[in-house]
Amino acid sequence: MAVEDVGLADPQALVIANAAKDAYDFLGSPEGELAIAEAVIYIATAPKSNAAYAAYGAAMRTAKEAGSLLPPKHILNAPTKLMKTEGYGYGSGYEYDHDTAEAFSGQDYFPKKLGRQKFYDPPERGFEREIRKRLEYWAKLRRERSAE
């Protein structure tokens, strides 16, 4: 439940579930049962989201349907010395995120034949509210950079 039903709405749910299992394994009964009870209460009252679960399913379907597509050349290293010297475009135009403003280049890493995809759509609840803000901010930076 911590993974599938709570998901990233509260990423601590999985940590707490695993900690409760470890506590039970270490303490045994009856003290370990209290750790399990606390984890059950925590998870039952945590905000719920299956957005990561749905995104994973969508990404797997897309990968299966699209097959093995090559990533863009700007994120590939030239596999041979000849390819480096002959100008095949490997690594050309690559921007290292940490060298850019906001440590975000906005470059597209999806295969050209596939185009940019959006699999994960976090809801406005729990921790995913913060993830949504971050994704929206990056989309804004990407729009600004493409307008330049």
User: Outline, from the CA principal axes?
Assistant: elongated
Specify Rg, calculated over alpha carbons.
Answer: 22 Å
Number of strands: 0
* Distinct helical segment count: 6
Alpha-beta classification: mainly alpha
Termini gap: 45 Å
Helices and strands, in order, run as HHHHHH
Major sheet: none
Mean pLDDT: 93
Parts with pLDDT < 50 across at least 5 consecutive residues? none
* Helix fraction bin: 40-55%
Summarize the structure.
With 148 residues, the protein is mostly helical. It has 6 helices and no strands.
Overview of the molecule:
The chain is an all-alpha fold. 52% of the residues lie in helices and 0% in strands. It contains six helices and no strands. The protein has helices at residues 2-6, 12-27, 31-45, 51-66, 81-85, 128-147. It is elongated and about 70 Å long.
How is the secondary structure organized here?
Blueprint (H helix, E strand, L loop, with lengths): L1 H5 L5 H16 L3 H15 L5 H16 L14 H5 L42 H20 L1
Helix pairs in contact: 2-3
Features:
single chain; 148 residues; mainly alpha; 6 helices; elongated
